[in-house]
Design brief:
Blueprint (H helix, E strand, L loop, with lengths): L1 H20 L7 H17 L4 E3 L11 E7 L4 H19 L4 E7 L4 H6 L7 E6 L2 E5 L5 H9 L18 H25 L5 H30 L12 H40 L6 H5 L3 H17 L1
Parallel strand pairs: 1-3, 2-3
Antiparallel strand pairs: 2-4, 4-5
């Protein structure tokens, strides 16, 4: 009927508005009473469940579980509360080896990051450490049937890299907790110390720059410790020393060249001497008796000995 549809649309709009407010006070007495009733109903509805937190959530990795993520300020979560309580009773009545659990994201923000919860309420089916998100009807009978008839087999499990107990999702959980801690500091600076919003942001910006510089310095020190820089083989010398070394090298090259030339001359003389010995005597007796002939031979021999000695 048109009247009923309008009422339903109004109710949905009010629910969305309340979810956007996230549990803030309305400033009226009726709002306070409604908020108190919601928290009371949520507490009663979860009395039969296991309340999970950062310390005990790993127990759902064994056995079969239905896990709900909720927040006390969320109207849709509170609307699901009676069905969730009935789910626990139906599971016990039918002797299903299934447990129900609930996570308050306001108390355990790390778990909401670990499970990548983007909407409330969110329901997960867990069986032997394999996670599947339940997206079926939110009444107790449908959820019991989902478990009893193994309807979860038709649901694609979460990939291994998104498994809540994986290392990378553990890092995501820490980041979520860090963000919540920073948000608390931001609220404290504004509410307790009366800083304006821009003042709080300025403090966060300065702290971010300082921490980044400190971490960068630590990283450079660690890299230098693990991989120390190589020492340069170059030797620093003065210009005079460079000039002296050049002259010394030049002198050494000249001496080597002189020795090479002397060796060439020496080899030529040795060949001539061998040729004279092997050839018939072509000198006359007069040449032998000529003064100074023996002296020339002795001079050549002394020169060869001197060159070899050098």
């Amino acid at each position: 009927m048109p009247g009923i549809r309008k009422k339903d649309e109004c109710f949905r709009a009010i629910s969305i508005l309340l979810c956007g407010l996230k549990g803030q006070d309305t400033g009226t007495k009726a709002g306070e009473e409604k908020k108190n009733n919601i928290v009371y109903d949520r507490a009663n509805a979860t009395s039969a469940n296991v309340e999970l937190d950062e310390d005990n959530w790993r127990q759902i990795l064994e056995g079969e579980w239905m896990v709900e993520f909720y927040a006390p300020w969320c109207p849709a979560c509170n609307a699901l509360a009676p069905a969730w309580k009935e789910l626990s009773s139906q599971a016990k009545a039918r002797n299903l080896e299934m447990n129900t659990a609930a996570v308050d994201v306001t108390k355990s923000p790390g778990l909401s990051g670990r499970f990548v919860v983007t909407a409330l309420p969110t329901i997960f089916h867990v069986k032997e450490g394999i996670f599947r998100q339940y997206k079926g009807p939110r009444d107790a009978l449908s959820m019991v049937s989902y478990v009893e008839r193994a309807g979860w087999r038709q649901t694609e499990p979460e990939p291994s890299w998104r498994a809540p107990h994986s290392f990378q999702m553990g890092l995501v959980a820490h980041f979520f907790k860090l963000s919540q801690g920073l948000r608390g500091v931001h609220n404290t600076l504004m509410e307790t110390y009366g800083l304006p919003t821009w003042g709080s942001y300025l403090i966060f910006a300065i702290a971010t720059i300082f921490i980044g510089a400190l971490l960068g310095l630590m990283l450079v020190c660690v890299i230098d410790l693990l991989y120390p820089p190589r020492r340069s083989d170059k030797e620093l010398v003065t210009e005079k020393e460079v000039e002296r070394r050049k002259q010394l090298e030049k002198k050494v090259l000249e001496d080597e060249q002189e020795l090479i030339n002397d060796d060439i001359v020496d080899d030529a003389e040795i060949k001539d001497s061998d040729a004279e010995r092997n050839s018939p005597a072509d000198t006359s007796e007069d040449d032998k008796d000529r003064p100074g002939a023996g002296d020339e031979k002795v001079t050549k021999e002394v020169r060869r000995r001197k060159i070899r000695k050098d």
